[in-house]
Amino acid sequence: GSTIGIIGAGQLGRMLGVAAAQLGYRIHVFAPASGPACDVNNAFTAAAYDDEAALAEFAKSVDVVTYEFENIDAAPIARLVELVPVRPSAKALAIAQNRIEEKTFVENLGGRAAPWRAVNSREELDAAIAEIGCPAILKTVRFGYDGKGQARLASTGDADAAWDAIGGNPAILEGFVTFDHEFSIVLARGQDGAHVSYPPPLNGHEDGILARSTVPAPAEVASQWTEAAALAGRVADALDYVGVLTLEFFAGKDGPIFNEMAPRVHNSGHWTIEGAVTSQFENHIRAICGLPLGSTAVTGTRVEMENLIGEQARRWSDIIAEPEAHLHLYGKAEIRPGRKMGHVTRVWR
Ligand code: ATP
Ligand code: MG
Ligand code: MG
């Protein structure tokens, strides 16, 4: 059997590992010794993400490499690509790591994003505010997740605080979109170019962190499904993408507004483990291993995934007693505020 290399030792890698094992593959996880989030089969190569010597060792031990974590520098990935197939491609990773590149890429394929401007200095922030207006959101170009690396501006007077909050890093200013609903398209594309996508969940955020995803989504979202999925398909095709790709959207009054993309399985796709015939994790493994993709049909009349964040994880003993609940705990050693400790998926048949 083949061995799949996974870069990153968070919950996404852990769930990818479970899906890989079910299909008979071995997995080897690459993560920095300083802090694997989850205990994934104790299979770690101790290193920093940019430790090229360790990455070369890792490459020798696997047949294909994928990643669950996209905040890796381009240089070590470029080195890895010379040694072993990396799926999805380094190009897809590079684009999705950078808010300017991803918005430009998606806009060039006909997608619509909130108005945005690159901001590289305090003066450029003033110029961007003058053009876009407030309310607005300042986001670091790279390395943001779970709402980290962002600052909201209610009015011009918030500019100093916002610039300080993101540490003066290269950023973009985005106009604040008024929307009632957020959703995502989770799409898998195989090596033969075939793609499948899941019905879009309604995604609810609290404090910038995904709180829950519900399927089916309300009509306001369902009516935007076709357009959003077609855009995701064009993005995947343009990148000759292999694996699962996620695009986040706001359901705007005049159609889907693209927010950002992730070159990987996504928190808003966790419901597919029990709520779809083939999970996002299995379809990602199938894609990177050259297998045909599986059905994305929903298994229940209603599915809801709820994240267990921080102290919410302590509710696990009540949740496990619910008949329709599927509990997932990520095996993180320490509860911290805002940390994703697990999730629960409820499927109503
Ligand atoms: P993730 O963990 O999804 O990678 P992130 O830190 O990259 O999150 P975003 O997805 O850009 O952050 O933003 C987090 C949330 O903040 C969004 O899901 C949305 O609820 C809100 N948000 C972001 N940008 C805008 C915007 N331009 N207008 C209105 N709300 C926004
Ligand atoms: Mg993001
Ligand atoms: Mg997001």
Automatic annotation (TrEMBL):
Entry EC number(s): 6.3.4.18
The keyword Protein transport belongs to this UniProt entry's keyword annotation: no
Alphabetic keyword roster: ATP-binding, Ligase, Nucleotide-binding, Purine biosynthesis
GO cellular component term of the entry, any: cytosol
Superkingdom field: Bacteria
Biochemical pathway: Purine metabolism; IMP biosynthesis via de novo pathway; 5-amino-1-(5-phospho-D-ribosyl)imidazole-4-carboxylate from 5-amino-1-(5-phospho-D-ribosyl)imidazole (N5-CAIR route): step 1/2
Chain positions recorded as ATP binding sites: 99, 139, 144-150, 174-177, 182, 205, 259-260
Gene Ontology biological process terms, A to Z: 'de novo' IMP biosynthetic process
Catalytic function, reaction form: 5-amino-1-(5-phospho-beta-D-ribosyl)imidazole + hydrogencarbonate + ATP = 5-carboxyamino-1-(5-phospho-D-ribosyl)imidazole + ADP + phosphate + 2 H(+)
Domain ATP-grasp: 103-289
Pfam families membership: ATP-grasp (PF02222), PurK_C (PF17769), RS_preATP-grasp-like (PF22660)
GO MF entry, a single one: metal ion binding
Keyword Nucleotide-binding: yes
Alphabetical list of InterPro entries matching this protein: ATP-grasp (IPR011761), ATP-grasp_carboxylate-amine (IPR003135), ATP_grasp_subdomain_1 (IPR013815), PreATP-grasp_dom_sf (IPR016185), PurK (IPR005875), PurK_C (IPR040686), PurT/PurK_preATP-grasp (IPR054350), Rudment_hybrid_motif (IPR011054)
Family of this protein: Belongs to the PurK/PurT family.
NCBIfam families hit by this protein: PRK06019.1-2, PRK06019.1-5, purK
Subunit structure: Homodimer.
Protein name listed in UniProt: N5-carboxyaminoimidazole ribonucleotide synthase
Biological source species: Stakelama pacifica
Gene designation per UniProt: purK
